[in-house]
Design goal:
7 helices; globular; mainly alpha; single chain
């Protein structure tokens, strides 16, 4: 189990993970809730010992980003462009990302002097507009990509004879 000494180290690791993959913040919340639930005697002390180091790592990076851009950016300012690449008129299921829309906009951004944060907001807005205007296509794009990727990874694991069968599969593929 997680000891009192391992919780802060785990928090530091989670802080680094969040800097690398911002969606890990959700796993941190789940883990903190689990720690609070399984340790009734020190319920909140354990959760705080886990979360505070992660927040320290992230806050140092966020402070640096604020100093550079003069705006608050939680961790990353490329979420909008990633959302746009996967959800635009140029996107297609089961294909490599088409960054045509990104390349078309770059000279305009450069001429206008937009910061990376402003560019990210632009791409996020464009992606959300596409999703709202083309709901069925957006669902199809993301459903197909995710399912095919998981099935491909699963087939590769079986082909390489990974020995995870004795533990039971840890996922449900629909």
């Amino acid at each position: 189990g997680l000891s009192d000494r391992s919780l802060p180290v785990t928090g530091l690791i989670f802080g680094c993970l969040i800097l690398t993959v911002p969606s890990f913040v959700f796993q941190l919340v789940v883990l903190a809730a689990w720690v609070a639930w399984v340790r009734p005697a020190a319920r909140w002390r354990g959760a705080v010992a886990l979360v505070v180091p992660a927040l320290l790592v992230v806050s140092v990076w966020s402070a640096r980003t604020y100093a550079v851009f003069h705006e608050f950016v939680f961790v990353s300012n490329n979420g909008g462009i990633n959302l746009f690449i996967g959800n635009s008129a140029h996107s297609s299921p089961n294909a490599a990302p088409d960054v045509q829309g990104v390349y078309e906009s770059y000279p305009i951004f450069k001429a206008a002097g937009l910061s990376e944060v402003e560019q990210d907001r632009y791409y996020r807005r464009r992606a959300l507009e596409f999703i709202l205007e083309n709901k069925a296509r957006a669902v199809k794009l993301n459903e197909t990509r995710g399912r095919e990727m998981i099935l491909s990874a699963y087939a590769e694991a079986i082909r390489l004879r990974y020995r995870f069968f004795s533990y039971g599969d840890a996922m449900l593929i629909l």
